[in-house]
Amino acid sequence: MTTTLITNIGSLVTNDPAHGDTPLGLVENAAVVIEGDRIAWVGPQEKAPAADAVHDAQGRAVIPGFVDSHSHLVFAGDRTQEFNARMSGRSYTAGGIRTTVAATRAATDEELEANLVHHLDEALRQGTTTFETKSGYGLTVEDEARALRIAARHTDEVTYLGAHIVSPDYADDPAAYVALVTGEMLDACAPHARWVDVFCEKGAFDGDQARAILTAGKAKGLLPRVHANQLGYGPGVQLAVELEAASADHCTHLTDEDVDALANSSTVATLLPGAEFSTRAQWPDARRLLDAGVTVALSTDCNPGSSFTSSVPFCIALAVRDMGMTPDEAMWAATAGGAQALRREDVGRLAPGAYADLALLDAPSHVHLAYRPGVPLVSAVWRRGVRAA
Ligand SMILES: [Zn+2]
């Protein structure tokens, strides 16, 4: 197997507690050896073993590739006018999703896949090497199943979100839609997905409906994750903990009981500040969660309605500037945190045996991701050991 040595790394984030005293496992003047698609060695550059090829990082920083654990990338059309109107003073409600549902249903498979690939390439160039994505803009048996089939060609982290909103076709009979989502639609979708998700929110699905949907998904072998407490207080976070979901996503409006429940669980709180940015909403309080001992992940929520950014560095900058996270905490949350939210140990860290997914920054330190917001600092990306951007 071919080996590649990346050396002269000024600052290396490993997320491996074997290095240094902080969760980031920082190594200065470091080197990494890639063998095939995996990391084979990490340590000080003067001790690095020889390799077939050498890449000189010229004193710059190297970080694990970002793990974007929450996106909605199988869609068609855009919502420029909705965003424009909202920035002129209207507030966001879940209803805007219907616009994308109509466009997605009307699109061909080829159009949906080309749009997905376009956004994945965009994310890769910004350092994202693992991503999760969801259905949720089809809301019919066939349209949901095809979204998942298309997504599964590009990632292992595929989520069935037939319960994004009640399909407009069932506006007068939400119970019948829940029956579809937990019945025929689930049967068609489960073979193509790893996860089941539900938008548990006023205007979408209440606690009882969400429990029924997640429980039915679990019975079909899918693992639960939940859109919880984004727009207001509600039962989503408690339900996520009760059902041992890998992640409760958004977590913007939390009671003390919600924070306690997360802190005493294995459920990760995935914060999605692109959504609050793009809807001018209240930020999630990352500091409160971290101080309570909750595991926090940061992700883009990339979707054409409420958070049309594929940039994890942008989310890191928001989290540091407005959500009380330190640059180190935000770095960890966007890599190791995302991996934990997907229950993965082979990504989000640079340690022997993990996938060789890493990004070279045009900066001496990962802190620059927040210090230099909006600047395209990711200058090279390796994914599965191959130079990908
Ligand atoms: Zn979402």
Automatic annotation (TrEMBL):
Zn(2+) binds at H70, H72, H227, D301. Fe(3+) binds at H70, H72, H227, D301. One of its GO terms (molecular function) is imidazolonepropionase activity. Pathway: Amino-acid degradation; L-histidine degradation into L-glutamate; N-formimidoyl-L-glutamate from L-histidine: step 3/3. Binds 1 zinc or iron ion per subunit. Belongs to the metallo-dependent hydrolases superfamily. HutI family. This is Imidazolonepropionase. It comes from Streptomyces antnestii.
